[in-house]
Specification:
662 residues, alpha/beta, 11-stranded mixed beta sheet, two-stranded parallel ribbon, 28 helices, 48% helix, 16% strand, elongated, disordered N terminus
Length: 662
């Protein structure tokens, strides 16, 4: 049978009436009729067997064809909201593969069905309740009240577990979807798998709390890992204190981490001056064996370099100066005798350093500090003005206590950690930033953490520290994206970092970075993409380009009739023709990205593998059973979906209560 034949097309289309069932009934009646003739001895046995066998065979053949159409149409009703216990996910988790969800590989056949289906309304292919019940899918289909086009996941008869090698995700994974489309559900599943595998897990959640934190806590408890470290930007007693400047390789790394808080679209010249100012202070603190912190750096940026410069010169004088160094230094200072008697001690030390001390003993920290000292104070204040909002955010209220922790404070017993500690101890860190309360502070904190992690990744790559897989998850990435994150996406795989980011639209990324080109640069560093429901045109265009094109068959049918009357003799002609053509079209038309149901998505992974998937909502099976068993048995019985949804609400309330008690 030719693949482009009319019969083949009609048989493969799952959105037409199952006329074959009518034919099957006809063949069944024929079989009964001939069986009756045999019973009345109107026809002999041999003829009856032949005819009865032929009718029976045709009956079963037509029944199979019609039933196949009904089953295919039943799948077009889609799937309802799915739930899965963490215990079940543990069984599905593979140490070398990532479980993406339930679905199927998208092929050109599915694209052809989708284009053909677009010619009809949903009423054309929807089955009644009886037919759905007969096919066994009466309870699992999407409700009419659910969002999205149910048929998208029903273009394939059935689904299976989809796995892809973890190695393929070294190049990053991008999750895009509008509000309440299911980003958190997919992200929670990916985070839970990383925890189950025993990886280092670092999650940056700008909103904080809620279902994601609950999934992390429950998964750690079920698999027996240490309780996750929780970092919040408020004065939460259950939060850890995280020092992003605790480890560093040079003063430049410290400056880079602080400057990363500035918006990526900031003026390049002012960023360079600000970086230089912070680097100068950081060099001085390191030279004096003072642990750099955001608070101490801000203090010396605001108060000037004089104090640090004097301390560095005192240290050098103690080691290198001769007893008569003051007289030698004074000889190079011009002024009256009275002026020389009251000369500024710092000026005297600088004179000794610049004119008396052998240049072989000059140091870079002091040289940098002297440049600032000799610089115009007014101009220096102008070029460092861009740092004022940076430090205002980083030292805002409670933020100062947790990002610049005081190790000598006896009243604050919260643990102080650093990212290298988290990695070395293979811990789970959840960073809840509370962006809904203070978006700017949340962005600043996340930027510092990402800059710190980029530095850690660089050291791990340089020292060739392997074996520990670091899974970084960033929700609402458009709020926190900066140059260090782009570096992590670009080169983090060499340091063992597997990055997954989630966002709502490309427009958010463009606004944060200042241009479409910069936004596309970020997307270009993400080799794997997951598209949930999205309505933004630019975002849909990016996914349409990514998914590629395929050949779609178009069939044009024309009918013609013609009637003439020559010399009183009527003449009638009729004709029919089919024209088949193929044209390269988008594998998935852009408008269908806005029709995806909740928790359903298209995934383009592993360099071109395209899948249609759905992600179940994670629950804790033990808590679910416990909560359901506590319900009053006298109450009216609920459906399974109602019980699960109620259990989810109770679990979230329980998590909030435990957090308040802590």
């Amino acid at each position: 049978m030719r693949a482009d034949s009319t019969y083949f097309r009609r048989f493969k289309q799952p959105y037409r009436n199952a006329w074959e069932l009518c034919s099957a009934i006809g063949w069944l009646l024929c079989a009964v009729y001939f069986f009756g003739l045999f019973q009345l001895e109107i026809i002999d046995r041999n003829l009856a067997v032949i005819v009865f066998g032929l009718c029976g065979a045709m009956f079963f053949w037509r029944l199979y064809e019609g039933w196949s159409i009904l089953v295919a149409r039943s799948y077009l009703h889609g799937y309802g909201t799915a739930f899965m216990s963490i215990q079940t996910l543990i069984k599905k988790t593979n140490p070398d593969n990532l479980w993406l969800g339930l679905g199927f590989e998208w092929t050109p056949d599915h694209s052809q069905k989708l284009y053909d289906l677009s010619k009809y309304s949903a009423k054309h292919w929807r089955l009644n309740k009886l037919a759905l019940w007969l096919t066994g899918r009466g309870k699992s289909v999407m409700s009419d009240d659910d969002q999205g086009l149910a048929a998208l996941h029903g273009l394939n008869c059935g689904e299976t577990d989809i796995y892809r090698p973890l190695k393929n995700f070294e190049g990053g994974l991008c999750i895009v979807g509008t509000t309440q489309a299911g980003k958190g559900v997919f992200l929670g599943t990916a985070i839970a798998q990383a925890i189950i595998r025993g990886d280092v897990v670092i999650t940056i959640d700008p909103k904080g709390g809620g279902r994601m934190e609950n999934v992390i806590r429950k998964t750690c408890a079920i698999v027996g890992r240490d309780e996750p470290l929780i970092f919040t930007t408020d004065n939460d007693p259950g939060s850890v204190r995280l020092d992003p400047l605790y480890t560093y390789g040079s003063s430049g790394e410290i400056a880079t981490r602080i400057i990363s808080v500035m918006p990526p679209s900031s003026d390049g010249t002012f960023r360079a001056f600000a970086w230089s100012a912070v680097d100068t202070v950081a060099q001085a603190l390191i030279e004096l064996n003072i642990s750099p912190s955001v608070r101490t750096i801000e203090t010396h940026i605001n108060n000037g370099i004089n104090e640090l410069l004097g301390l560095m010169l005192d240290k050098l004088i103690e080691n290198k100066a001769c007893p008569e160094w003051r007289q030698k230094a004074l000889a190079f200072i011009k002024g009256s005798k009275k002026e020389l008697e009251n000369v500024d001690p710092l000026k005297l030390k600088i004179s000794w350093y610049e004119n008396v001390l052998d240049k072989t003993h000059h140091t870079r920290p002091i040289e940098s500090a002297l440049k600032v000292y000799h610089h115009s104070a007014e101009h220096y204040a102008k070029i460092t003005a861009s740092l004022i909002p940076v430090f205002a955010l980083l030292n805002n209220g409670d933020m100062q206590k947790i990002i610049s922790p005081d190790r000598n404070d006896p009243k604050d017993l919260r643990p102080i950690i650093s990212l290298p500690d988290v990695i070395e101890q293979k811990q789970v860190l959840y960073i809840a930033l509370g962006s809904m309360q203070n978006a700017d502070v949340a962005t600043a904190a996340a930027s510092m953490m990402l800059a710190d992690l980029a530095s850690v990744a660089g050291h791990r790559y340089k020292l060739k520290k392997g074996g520990v897989r670091i899974c970084l998850f960033v929700d609402e990435v458009s709020n926190v994206v900066n140059a260090p994150l782009i570096e992590i996406l670009n080169k983090g795989a060499e340091g063992g970092i597997y990055t997954t980011v989630a966002m709502q639209t490309m427009a958010d990324l463009e606004e944060r970075l200042g241009s479409v080109a910069a936004a596309r640069k970020v997307i270009g560093n993400l080799n794997n993409m997951v598209a949930l429901r999205t309505k933004d045109g630019l975002t849909r265009d990016v996914f349409t380009e990514t998914m590629g094109k395929t050949y779609i068959k178009h069939v044009d049918t024309s009918l013609s009739t013609h009637a003439d009357n020559y010399s009183g003799i009527p003449s009638y002609n009729a004709g029919a023709s089919h024209k088949s053509s193929s044209k390269r079209e988008d594998v998935i038309p852009g408008e269908y990205y806005s029709m995806l149901p909740n928790c359903q998505f298209f995934a383009n992974v592993s360099g071109g593998k395209l899948y249609k998937l759905r992600s179940p909502i994670l629950i804790d099976e033990n808590d679910y059973k416990e909560k359901v068993s506590e319900k009053d048995s006298a109450k009216p019985a609920k459906t399974a979906d109602e019980e699960i949804r109620e259990a989810l609400e109770l679990l979230e309330q329980d998590a909030e209560e435990k957090k308040e008690q802590a």
